[in-house]
Amino acid sequence: MVLNGCLPIGPSTASGGTRTSFNKIRPILESSCVHCHGAIRLPNMPSFNSTRALASITGPDKLIVPGAPEKSRFYQVTTLSDDQVGAMPPTGHALKPREIELIRQWIEEGAKIPQEDLTLTPRGQSPRSR
Predict the structure, then answer these.
(1) Which of 36, 58, 72, 112 has the fewest beta carbons closer than 10 A?
(2) What is the pTM of this model?
(3) Which residue range is the domain that position 26 belongs to?
(4) DSSP code of 58?
């Protein structure tokens, strides 16, 4: 099922013209991000436990800059090595290279988020360091 507004507007240069829909990003967020960036989080941590919350951190000069992964803090922190301050997910739980590439492609293609307000639910074991 394709949700209204979730397909990016431009083709991906890295994947031969295919588009990276939010449906490919959602499982990454739910398994690696929403545990700490959900309803229960530190006050200084942005929430993205719903598409509405994710949309609030998307735009020029925000955490997700559509079309510009290199300017998007959301993407930058996923590329940091575990020993660097600010690496996300927390130390010892780095995203797989394919997941990082999907996030990069999604942002490059416009970071389209479904218009429908969907709740993102933590899946699997929390990546938070203990």
Answers:
(1) 36
(2) 0.80
(3) 22-108
(4) B
